[in-house]
Amino acid sequence: VCHLSLMSLSLSLSLALLLSLLHLPALCLAHGNSGPTKANCHPQSHIVFLKTHKTASSTILNILYRYGESRNLTFALPQNKHSQLFYPFFFASHFVEGVSTKSVREFHIMCNHMRFRKSEVTKVMPEDTFYFSILRHPVAMMESIFTYFKSIPAFHTTHSLDEFLDNSWRNYNSSVLNNHYAHNILAFDFGFDNNVAAGAEDLEERATMAIATIEQDFHLILISEYFDESMILLKHVLCWSLEDVASFRLNSRSEKTRHLLLPNTAEKIKRWNALDWRIYLHFNTTFWHKVGSVVGQEKLNKEISQLKELQAKLANICLKDGGAVDPSQVKDVGLKPFQYGAAIIQGYNLNPHLDRQMKTKCQRLVTPELQYTDHLYTQQFPEATLLHLPMAGAAPLPRHRSPP
Length: 404
Ligand SMILES: *[C@@H]1O[C@H](CO)[C@@H](O)[C@H](O)[C@H]1NC(C)=O
Ligand SMILES: *[C@@H]1O[C@H](CO)[C@@H](O)[C@H](O)[C@H]1NC(C)=O
Ligand SMILES: *[C@@H]1O[C@H](CO)[C@@H](O)[C@H](O)[C@H]1NC(C)=O
Fold this sequence. Notes:
By secondary structure, this protein is mainly α. 48% of the residues lie in helices and 4% in strands. It has one domain (9-296, 371-385): 3-Layer(aba) Sandwich (Rossmann fold), CATH 3.40.50. It has a 4-stranded parallel beta sheet with strand order 2-1-3-4. Helix 2 links the parallel strand 1 and strand 2. The chain is globular and about 60 Å long. The structure holds 2-acetamido-2-deoxy-beta-D-glucopyranose (3 copies). Keywords: Glycoprotein, Golgi apparatus, Membrane, Signal, Signal-anchor, Transferase, Transmembrane, Transmembrane helix.
């Protein structure tokens, strides 16, 4: 009897071992890129950031631009000086400048707006690329989108967000260009079909499929509501320094154009954007698990204070007015943020008394997305820039006035 039970014990043990071995490759894949431990910490410089809408992603873009520019890394920039990778079309590798002509040997960072399609991204980016993105609470996001994209057909004739939500299926025609902003925009940006009704039979199935695909394609999903926590987690996972993830908030709205939502409105948004809501809830949970396992609460709190201290110090040195100002008060055209919709996007003035080195550093911190993209393109493709240079010596103006 004893012999038998021992045997069955060893059998179940080896079964467990076998199972764990079977799971090992998956685990390695999931974690291989996601968190360099102290022992093998090596700064990651092959990066894809899926830039999502109204999620503080412009601030992350600036972080990536500065990181890459200061280390001479190569960006997978939109062809012909566009500001986006032909969003809202599905991404295709030839959208990237230098891919068709094979003029770029190696790309390090890809981070401009695209509708994600992994199979095409992998044609451009190296195999060991780290993929990440950021999500925002769908209720706050919808409020922001309604203000910013007020001119899209779905919102155009409605006076309030409630009015839109109460008649959403009447106001919203999914075949009309730009209406995707109004419905499950997160799912859309990640490359999924965003048109699914809250009561749809296949909602759960589609949400599960979307979540599983994102889990597979991305190493890290950050959460906009926890931006500081996100930056600390990112720093650890990429093996970067605190200074690398320090930033000033960019493409941010003035408080004047923010609207408080009623609880009832929030519920309607969760129903209307049911797919995004499920995706968000899932990745909010995995985000906190990752913060716990990679950083830990104590270190997290400590590093957030350090980050805030560093950012306050930088603001003190770099900014004339100590913080963000309305766009009409931004003196330098090169630093004026692009304005769109009914939102007022704030900008910064630089402190005029900076030495050359500090000025460069500060300038990079406050350069808005469109101007910075333009600048990087010019640096990376000086010949192409000469060909379609409109006015020599003029301040760099964004060529493509599609909303960032
Ligand atoms: C980047 O390139 C410039 C110009 O070629 C060079 O002077 C500089 O040292 C490089 N910086 C790094 C970090 O490699
Ligand atoms: C939705 O838009 C398409 C394309 O513009 C149009 O053909 C169709 O009739 C519209 N549907 C409704 C219900 O208005
Ligand atoms: C996200 O996770 C945090 C931490 O667990 C929790 O406090 C918060 O309520 C979550 N957000 C939502 C919308 O569930």
